[in-house]
Protein backbone atom coordinates (compact mmCIF):
# COMPACT_ATOMS: atom_id res chain seq x y z
CA UNK A 1 0.00 0.00 0.00
CA UNK A 2 2.43 2.73 1.06
CA UNK A 3 5.40 1.61 -1.07
CA UNK A 4 7.71 1.34 1.94
CA UNK A 5 7.99 -0.24 5.36
CA UNK A 6 7.86 0.97 8.95
CA UNK A 7 9.76 -0.28 12.01
CA UNK A 8 7.93 0.38 15.31
CA UNK A 9 9.68 -0.62 18.55
CA UNK A 10 7.53 -0.37 21.69
CA UNK A 11 8.18 -0.44 25.41
CA UNK A 12 5.63 -1.06 28.16
CA UNK A 13 5.58 -0.58 31.92
CA UNK A 14 3.16 -1.76 34.63
CA UNK A 15 3.52 -0.61 38.23
CA UNK A 16 1.38 -1.67 41.16
CA UNK A 17 0.36 1.31 43.30
CA UNK A 18 -1.36 -0.63 46.10
CA UNK A 19 -5.00 -1.15 47.09
CA UNK A 20 -5.83 -2.64 43.67
CA UNK A 21 -4.52 0.37 41.66
CA UNK A 22 -1.99 0.07 38.84
CA UNK A 23 -0.26 2.35 36.38
CA UNK A 24 0.00 0.92 32.83
CA UNK A 25 2.02 2.74 30.19
CA UNK A 26 3.38 2.18 26.70
CA UNK A 27 5.54 4.24 24.38
CA UNK A 28 6.43 3.55 20.77
CA UNK A 29 8.19 5.28 17.92
CA UNK A 30 7.61 4.52 14.23
CA UNK A 31 10.47 4.90 11.77
CA UNK A 32 9.38 4.88 8.12
CA UNK A 33 11.86 4.38 5.28
CA UNK A 34 11.95 7.12 2.62
CA UNK A 35 10.81 6.01 -0.83
CA UNK A 36 10.26 7.24 -4.39
CA UNK A 37 6.93 7.05 -6.19
CA UNK A 38 6.49 8.43 -9.70
CA UNK A 39 9.76 10.37 -9.45
CA UNK A 40 8.76 12.06 -6.18
CA UNK A 41 10.73 11.35 -3.00
CA UNK A 42 8.47 10.80 0.03
CA UNK A 43 9.81 10.97 3.57
CA UNK A 44 8.20 10.85 7.00
CA UNK A 45 9.57 12.08 10.31
CA UNK A 46 9.43 9.57 13.17
CA UNK A 47 6.04 9.44 14.87
CA UNK A 48 5.55 8.80 18.58
CA UNK A 49 2.66 7.40 20.57
CA UNK A 50 2.21 7.46 24.32
CA UNK A 51 -0.52 5.60 26.19
CA UNK A 52 -1.01 5.81 29.95
CA UNK A 53 -3.73 4.28 32.10
CA UNK A 54 -4.71 4.31 35.74
CA UNK A 55 -6.26 0.91 36.35
CA UNK A 56 -8.31 -0.35 39.29
CA UNK A 57 -8.54 -4.13 39.68
CA UNK A 58 -11.02 -5.04 42.45
CA UNK A 59 -10.71 -8.77 41.68
CA UNK A 60 -8.66 -11.19 39.55
CA UNK A 61 -11.38 -11.09 36.87
CA UNK A 62 -12.40 -7.41 36.80
CA UNK A 63 -10.49 -4.23 35.88
CA UNK A 64 -11.56 -0.64 35.28
CA UNK A 65 -9.24 1.87 33.62
CA UNK A 66 -9.08 5.50 32.61
CA UNK A 67 -6.40 6.54 30.17
CA UNK A 68 -4.74 8.89 27.76
CA UNK A 69 -3.41 8.26 24.27
CA UNK A 70 -1.42 10.84 22.33
CA UNK A 71 0.25 10.79 18.92
CA UNK A 72 3.00 13.21 17.97
CA UNK A 73 5.27 13.81 14.96
CA UNK A 74 5.03 11.86 11.71
CA UNK A 75 5.08 14.84 9.36
CA UNK A 76 5.18 13.75 5.70
CA UNK A 77 7.24 15.46 3.00
CA UNK A 78 7.18 15.16 -0.79
CA UNK A 79 10.50 16.31 -2.30
CA UNK A 80 11.25 18.12 0.99
CA UNK A 81 7.91 20.03 0.92
CA UNK A 82 5.66 19.49 3.97
CA UNK A 83 2.38 17.90 2.95
Helix content: under 10%
State the major sheet.
Answer: 5 strands, antiparallel
Strand content: over 45%
Report the uncertain regions. none
Distance between the termini: 18 Å
What brief labels describe this structure?
five-stranded antiparallel β-sheet; 0% helix; 83 residues; four-stranded antiparallel β-sheet; mainly beta
Walk me through this protein's architecture.
By secondary structure, the protein is mostly beta strands. It is built from no helices and 9 strands. The strands form 2 sheets. Strands 1, 2, 3, 6 and 7 form a 5-stranded antiparallel sheet that branches. Strands 4-5-8-9 form a 4-stranded antiparallel sheet, with no helix packed on it. Strand 8 and strand 9 (81-82) form a beta hairpin. The chain is rod-shaped, with a radius of gyration of 19 Å. The relative contact order is 0.24. The mean pLDDT is 95.
